[in-house]
């Protein structure tokens, strides 16, 4: 045999030995030997012996009977010898000893006992003394093996136990009797008739409802469960089983066995009848005070039909049982615990996977929910019940949103409305939407319905801010269903207040009012009422956390103003501008404006600086993005207190708008503002506003205050300067100053000097240098008196300015404008002319500047050289030529084009010839006269001729001794100055008719040359004579065979 075969055989033997199937035989069980009782002992038990002796022997035999097996017939002998001791005459102690002996005998000697069992049972039936009850019960338990065996007394046992139960249970022996009855039902159910079962159930139910012992109730429920489980239940038992289970299930220790009992009962053929019985219990008004009964009945109905452990064999619909649940909780005496169980049932019914419900079932559910919501919270468990009811209502609303709700929506939202103070936000939002849709069905009463909603749900105690916001949004989106005036009168004015304590709600109300003013056609009275409400928002003191309403008011009013200016009601625009101006001034008059209100001031400034007027004085607004201005056809500005500037339409349709409050508010904001963005916006908008003279003049804009403010910011106030820099840079100041240059007649004596000082300071600001230069050029023409005082300092500043391409043309333009105003440089000295040339000469460099700039620079140098005094030219000529040659010389790294170099050389040669001719040709060649010659020729006349080339010949004759009478000329010189006109003039005079002598004399008076007085030249209508004598005064004279140039203003008296 192989090794593997041996291993398999060993394994098989081990398995057989494990289960007792092996070859080894089991050890022999020793048989108990039968014990025979001596005859002497039996004699001592006989009735002839004394009772005490007999009791002693019985006690000795008790141990023998418990441990040994008696011989056949010994048990019967012992019973027959001792049964007489049970006579009540022997006393209780004797009976108890004998009964204990019988109990031991029956338990120890059960197998051979047959006839003795019947005798002992009859003995139990005969004994009736109360003190023997425990031993009788113990003997019955011994006889029946605790109810499992009823041999020899099967027919009598059931009846006996039913009649004996009340006595045993009353004695408090339920814990010994009930397990016996459970075994009787389980092991001997075939011997129990309906009456016996009825007795068991009835007595057990009474015990369960009356005892205070937890163990007794559990044993009783176990007995009832056994009766139901073994199919011995009938319809008559429902009146006992169902109420008992209802009362015990509400007790925590018995809830599980009670539910198991009821579930088993509902699973029988009586299940549907049991549900009906439970419903009858709930509907019976006499049970209204029986809280435990109703509570258990409600629980069983819900748990059996809709819970996760529902009985599948039941097919009751929700519509059939829900009215019973509602009847149980709608009583005035209903306890909150009953309602709580009903709420639990609804949770099961409406939970996940719930079957579809019809309209009848939904109506019953809503009725039940309405009852649950009415329970007060101050009762015991009332708060928890309310919470569950609201959760159920929320669940129904979700089903409504999902479209699975088939009940009455009006009924549902009526419940929501009733419980509104305790409902969540989402529920109230659904309610508002439903009410709004209902109101749409009747447009004639829409305003009344919305007024009711606003009165109820705009109350802070009733709804949260989100609900109130949603209600206002619904009102705004559906207001087209009502006339505008009716909406204002019935809804907005009585119920919508922009002064809500909640900032978000107040802001929404403000936006609604502004939108109504903007889009709806209102009467003047209602418009004024709404504007008054918005005005109250502007003047109210809002906390920093509540500024959203104020921001909404400002934004709404600004938008309203813009809309009504362009195309709307002019009266509304006038009122709104008044409110906005007052608010801006209010913010700035309280000292330092609040930083948190800076966005509001920014919006106000943007609106006010956009004001414009047309040629017909129509008021308009400028779009900052496109620069396009839209004018109103019915709104004009007022020049002074109420007097219109013009009219663009019929007088009846035109409204006058005064800019004064707005302009004062802007100045106040400019003076007090500390926020950078607001100040930056204001400074950027002021130039455009100032270019509109009508706005400035009609608004009586204080140009002096504005000029003073600008001067203060550049005069060394570091705090204000830093504020301007933080607002976007110093460059924002100078466009404002440049715009003020145009207001020559409106400026006082001091303001022009301030403006010029500001513009001069702007030369150091690179972004604003070009603008300041052009403004200074304009100021040279407009502000001559002030410019004459600051011009020397200004030239010094310009001489220090770096010559760059950006400022090249503006600098040259300034010099070109300046040369057209001789009054400004009439008193210049050589140093100041030198500064002018120092300014212009750097721009003659062709390597750095364009040809246009270079040519213009040469042209200006030539003009200014001709304008300077003759005596200064000899000193200025070398300075000019030296700088011109320096500009022509290239730098180390410069590579110039040959054409550029050639052009520069030509310009240099041309200008050099001019400088040489005007400096040395007219002054240096004149011979010096002796004293005698000077005396003779002092009052003589002289005449000069320009010969071909560059030669000038002057012939002077001795003068007369006459006194100068006519503007510094004697009669002779005056007559000499009245020479005839050139040839073409003479021809014209010959063609004209002869004039009278008087007219000739007047004409001669008009043609006299003025040497000294420019004012006289203006008065006579002639061109004013220059103060300085230069070569520009030379004029070509022709005709009469005389060639050359004549110095017309040179005579013997000069």
From TrEMBL:
Residues 991-1006 have a biased composition (Low complexity). Residues 547-870 form the Tuberin-type domain. It holds the Pfam family Tuberin. One of its GO terms (cellular component) is nucleus. GO terms for biological process: negative regulation of insulin receptor signaling pathway; negative regulation of phosphatidylinositol 3-kinase/protein kinase B signal transduction; negative regulation of TOR signaling; negative regulation of Wnt signaling pathway; regulation of cell cycle. One of its GO terms (molecular function) is GTPase activator activity. InterPro entries: ARM-type_fold, Tuberin, Tuberin-type_domain, Tuberin/Ral-act_asu, Tuberin_N. Residues 984-1039 are annotated as: Disordered. Residues 52-475 form the Tuberin N-terminal domain. This is Tuberin. It comes from Rhipicephalus zambeziensis.
């Amino acid at each position: 045999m192989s090794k593997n075969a041996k291993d398999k055989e060993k394994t098989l033997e081990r398995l057989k030995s494990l289960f007792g199937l092996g070859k080894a035989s089991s050890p022999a069980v020793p048989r108990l030997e039968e014990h025979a009782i001596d005859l002497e002992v039996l004699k001592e038990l006989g009735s002839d012996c004394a009772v005490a002796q007999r009791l002693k022997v019985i006690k000795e035999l008790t141990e023998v009977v418990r441990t040994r097996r008696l011989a056949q017939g010994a048990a019967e002998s012992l019973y027959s010898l001792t049964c007489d001791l049970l006579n009540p005459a022997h006393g209780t102690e004797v009976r108890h000893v004998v009964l204990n002996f019988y109990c031991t005998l029956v338990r120890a000697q059960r197998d051979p006992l047959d006839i003795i069992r019947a005798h002992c049972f009859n003995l139990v039936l005969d004994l009736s003394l109360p003190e023997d009850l425990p031993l009788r019960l113990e003997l019955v338990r011994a006889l029946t093996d605790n109810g499992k065996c009823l041999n020899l007394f099967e027919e009598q046992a059931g009846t006996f136990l039913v009649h004996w139960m009340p006595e045993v249970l009353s004695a408090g022996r339920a814990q010994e009797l009930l397990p016996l009855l459970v075994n009787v039902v389980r092991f001997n159910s075939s011997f129990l008739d309906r009456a016996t079962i009825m007795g068991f159930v009835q007595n057990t139910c009474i015990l369960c409802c009356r005892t205070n012992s937890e163990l007794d109730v559990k044993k009783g429920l176990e007995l009832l469960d056994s009766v139901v489980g073994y199919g011995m239940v009938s319809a008559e038992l429902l009146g006992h089983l169902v109420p008992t289970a209802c009362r015990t299930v509400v007790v925590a220790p018995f809830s599980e066995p009670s539910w198991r009992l009821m579930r088993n009962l509902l699973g029988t053929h009586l299940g549907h009848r049991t549900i009906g019985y439970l419903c009858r219990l709930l509907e019976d008004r006499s049970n209204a005070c029986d809280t435990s009964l109703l509570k258990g009945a409600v629980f069983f109905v819900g748990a059996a039909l809709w819970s996760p452990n529902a009985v599948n064999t039941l097919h009751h619909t929700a519509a059939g049982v829900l009215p019973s649940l509602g009847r149980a909780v709608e009583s005035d005496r209903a306890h909150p615990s009953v309602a709580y169980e009903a709420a639990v049932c609804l949770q099961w019914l409406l939970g996940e996977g719930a079957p579809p419900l019809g309209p009848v079932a939904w109506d019953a559910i809503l009725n039940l929910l309405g009852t649950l919501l009415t329970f007060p919270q101050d009762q015991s468990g009332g708060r928890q019940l309310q919470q569950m009811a609201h959760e159920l209502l929320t669940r129904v609303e979700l089903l409504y949103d999902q479209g699975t709700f088939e009940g009455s929506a009006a009924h549902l939202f009526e419940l929501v409305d009733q419980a509104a103070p305790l409902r969540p936000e989402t529920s109230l939002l659904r309610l508002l939407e439903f009410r709004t849709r209902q109101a749409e069905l009747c447009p004639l009463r829409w305003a009344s319905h919305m007024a009711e909603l606003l009165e109820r749900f705009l109350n802070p105690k009733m709804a949260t801010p989100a609900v109130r916001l949603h209600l206002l949004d619904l009102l705004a989106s559906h207001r087209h269903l009502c006339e505008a005036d009716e909406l204002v009168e019935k809804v907005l004015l009585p119920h919508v207040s922009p002064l809500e304590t909640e900032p978000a709600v107040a802001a929404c109300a403000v936006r609604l009012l502004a939108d109504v003013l903007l889009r709806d056609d209102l009467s003047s009275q209602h418009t004024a009422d709404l504007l008054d409400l918005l005005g109250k928002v502007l003047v109210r003191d809002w906390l920093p956390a509540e500024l959203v309403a104020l921001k909404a008011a400002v934004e709404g009013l600004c938008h309203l103003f813009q809309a009504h200016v362009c195309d709307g009601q002019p009266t509304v625009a006038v009122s709104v501008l008044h409110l906005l101006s007052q608010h801006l001034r209010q913010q700035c008059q309280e000292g330092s404006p609040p930083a948190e209100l800076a966005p509001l001031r920014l919006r106000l400034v943007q609106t006010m600086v956009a004001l414009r007027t047309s040629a017909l004085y129509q008021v308009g607004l400028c779009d900052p993005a496109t620069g396009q201005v839209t004018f109103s056809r019915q709104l004009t500005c007022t020049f002074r207190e109420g007097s219109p500037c013009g009219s663009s339409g019929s007088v009846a349709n035109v409204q006058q708008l005064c800019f004064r409050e707005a302009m004062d508010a802007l100045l106040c904001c400019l003076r007090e503002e500390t926020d950078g963005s607001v100040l930056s916006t204001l400074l950027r908008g002021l130039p455009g506003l100032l270019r509109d003279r009508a706005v400035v003049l009609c608004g009586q804009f204080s140009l002096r205050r504005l000029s003073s403010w600008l001067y203060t910011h550049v005069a060394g106030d570091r705090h204000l300067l830093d504020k301007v820099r933080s607002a976007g840079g110093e460059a924002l100041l100078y466009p404002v100053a440049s715009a003020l240059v145009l207001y020559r007649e409106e400026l006082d004596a001091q303001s022009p000097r301030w403006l010029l000082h500001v513009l001069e300071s702007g030369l150091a600001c690179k972004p604003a240098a070009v603008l300041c230069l052009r403004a200074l050029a304009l100021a040279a023409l407009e502000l001559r008196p002030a410019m004459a005082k600051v011009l020397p300092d200004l030239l010094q500043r310009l001489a220090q300015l770096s010559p760059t391409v950006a400022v090249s043309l503006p600098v040259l333009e300034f010099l070109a404008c300046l040369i057209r105003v001789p009054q400004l440089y009439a008193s210049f000295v050589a140093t100041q002319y030198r500064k002018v040339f120092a300014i212009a000469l750097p721009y003659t460099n062709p390597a750095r500047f364009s040809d246009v700039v270079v040519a213009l620079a040469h042209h200006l140098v030539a003009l200014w050289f001709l304008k300077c005094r003759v005596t200064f030219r000899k000193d200025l000529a070398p300075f000019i030529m030296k700088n011109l040659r320096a500009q022509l010389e290239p730098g180390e790294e410069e590579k110039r084009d040959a054409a550029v170099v050639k052009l520069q050389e030509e310009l240099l040669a041309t200008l050099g010839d001019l400088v040489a001719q005007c400096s040395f040709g007219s002054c240096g060649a004149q011979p010096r006269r002796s004293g005698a010659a000077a005396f003779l020729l002092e009052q003589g006349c002289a005449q000069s001729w320009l010969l071909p080339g560059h030669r000038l010949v002057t012939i002077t004759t001795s003068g007369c001794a006459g006194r100068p009478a006519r503007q510094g000329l004697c009669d002779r010189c005056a007559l000499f100055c009245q020479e005839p006109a050139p040839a073409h003039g003479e021809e014209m005079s010959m063609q004209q008719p002869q004039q009278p002598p008087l007219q000739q004399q007047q004409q001669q008076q008009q043609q006299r040359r003025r040497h000294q007085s420019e004012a006289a030249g203006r008065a006579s209508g002639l061109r004013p004579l220059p103060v300085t004598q230069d070569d520009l005064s030379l004029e070509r004279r022709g005709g009469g065979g005389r060639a050359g140039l004549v110095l017309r203003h040179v005579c013997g008296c000069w």
